[in-house]
Amino acid sequence: MQVAAYISDLLYRHECVVIPNFGAFISRRVPAQYFESTHTLYPPKKGLSFNEQIKQNDGLLVNYISTVEKLPYEDAMQEIRNYVRFLDHEMDEKGEITIHKVGRFTRTAENALSFTPMYLVNYLPEAFGLSMQETYAIDRTAVPVEKPTPQPVASISKMEPAPSKTNEPVEKPVRQLETPASRSAAWVRAAAAVAILVAGSYAGLYSYQTQQFNDAVAVEEMANEQLKSKIQEASFFISTPLPSVTMEVAPIVKNYHVVAGAFRDPANADKKVTQLKALGYDAERIGVNKYGLHNVAYASFAERNDAINELYRIRKQGNDGAWLLSGSLKK
Fold first, then answer.
1. In CATH, 256-326 is 3.30.70
2. pLDDT of 276-299, one tens digit each?
3. What pTM was computed for the model?
4. What is d(CA 71, CA 79) in angstroms, rounded to the nearest whole number?
């Protein structure tokens, strides 16, 4: 029987799994870790440890084996005893034993069990599918960029004339180098030309928009004058007035009452109403019940939810004797 597989299954769902008469595996949550020395990121996991002092059977492993293998409880317990004897025998013979997917056991100089967990197995369900990630450092050293040195540009001021048919010497034009001052003057002239064009365009656009606005105002004034003349010419006469309409609105029926008390004597009921009104309640006598008692309400409502909310509020103020009455009473 693969008892090690059942131990591994339980470690996914429980924080403590006891092998009776051997020891207990205890798990705890370990957050994600980053090791700067190796640039490695590890996901969160369940860290395993072993406590040799916890040997008492808690029934978890036995019941699980009994359910999965469909064995009686005593037979499952016997399987665990056989497995523990196997572990002890291997430790005595080889000095170490490995439980698959759980960890490795060895003996210390004091003959105590030393446990090394299996780091490649992650028993944290939330981290399923996550694995170790290796990162790489980014070299952020700035690389200097060399700026090119501007070179002077030669320009030809005039075209060379065609050679003369005569033998007279022809004077050749001299090439002039373009200087920073000449380039600056050229830019100034170009900018001035652009500014003149923009100013002219803006002036034309402003003139056009102004004309459009004046035209719209004139049209609106003309329409207003025509409307006034039409109103002055018209006259309204109502020869037969409309008959008045009388509508009957059904009164709001408040059949939900937060009752403060019931009194045999009407005078006591009226006294209670006066006291509640002095405290700010919309109190009133709501009628006589079948026992002949006069009921006094803190307030009455048309909606049940409003009455329930008021009842809760009144009880929170210490009036535990308040209760809800539905329906109407005879006056």
1. yes
2. 999 899 999 999 988 888 999 999
3. 0.40
4. 10
